[in-house]
Amino acid sequence: MNQYVIADPKLCIGCNTCMASCSQEHQRHGLQSAPRLQVMRNRLDSAPVMCHQCEDAPCAQVCPVNAITRENNAIHLNESLCVSCKLCGIACPFGAITFSGSTPVDIPRDCNTSKALPAPRAPRAVSPFLDCVPGIRAVAVKCDLCTFSPQGPACITTCPTQAITLVTADLSDRASQLKRLNAMNVFPAELPVELTAFNTPDTEAK
Q1: Which among 44, 89, 133, 202 could disulfide-bond with 97, CB atoms 3.0 to 4.6 Å apart, if both were Cys?
Q2: Is residue 158 scored above 90 in pLDDT?
Q3: What value does the mean pLDDT take over residues 152-178?
Q4: Rounded to whole angstroms, how far apart are CA atoms 143 and 70?
Q5: SS3 content of the chain, % helix, strand, coil (to 5)
Q6: If phi over 0 gives left and psi between -120 and 50 gives alpha, with beta otherwise, what is residue 70?
Q7: CA pair distance 15, 48, nearest whole angstrom
Q8: How many Cα neighbours within 13 Å face the side chain of 111?
Q9: What is the pairing mode between strands 164-167 and 38-41?
Q10: What is the largest CA-CA distance in the chain?
């Protein structure tokens, strides 16, 4: 079973600390600074949405350059191999893959010279799947569980309410055992005395 990160909406306060720490941690390691999770809100609750580290990984199946692979019980994306086809984001059933622009290091942004026309302004953003800015390479980004960090996922270590948890195989097994025990309590093998009258023939009526 792949490891994955989940969030409890009852504990989440929508502070966006997880997004900020995710962005900073990846940028510090030379990766795209776009956060790998997005806090969603409704009228009552809030919780970050992130990669589910699917066992079948539809994103990996459609990637034409094998930039998405399974490593260390997680689905990883190699930003250097990404060709910006955006198929992984389309295939993801949870909308957990987004795209971040990567500009060449040697070309300053909005560079102008008297020998050429002024650089055109970037078009208004519409959607990560539809935007196309000349000179900027769109790179897919998804949760990688911060495997490069010995402290683990940055969103977990920085969440002020401890609403985010890393689910491992052991934790999943314990949760399954608890569900089975709860089911046994709800539907016991031996019915209580109060219910036996409804499950046995009424001999006195005869």
Answers
A1: 89
A2: yes
A3: 87
A4: 13
A5: 25, 15, 60
A6: beta
A7: 10
A8: 9
A9: unpaired
A10: 108
Backbone φ, ψ for residue 90 (5° rounding):
-70, -35
Tell me how far apart the alpha carbons of residues 149 and 25 are, in angstroms, rounded to a whole number: 9
pTM score of the predicted model: 0.70
> Distance (Å, rounded) from C-alpha 135 to C-alpha 107?
9
- At 6-39, the pLDDT tens digits run 999 999 999 999 999 999 999 888 888 889 999 9
Per-residue model confidence (pLDDT) at position 160: 94
Q: In angstroms, rounded to a whole number, what is the distance separating the alpha carbons of residues 145 and 151?
A: 10
Report the C-alpha dihedral over residues 100, 36, 31, 171, rounded to 10 degrees.
-160
Q: What is the pLDDT, as a whole number, of residue 122?
A: 66
pLDDT at 101 over 90: no
Cβ atoms 53, 36 nearer than 8 A: no
Confidence tier at 201 by pLDDT (50, 70, 90) = very low
Contact by Cβ (8 Å): 135, 81: no
Residue 45: phi, psi to the nearest 5?
-125, 170
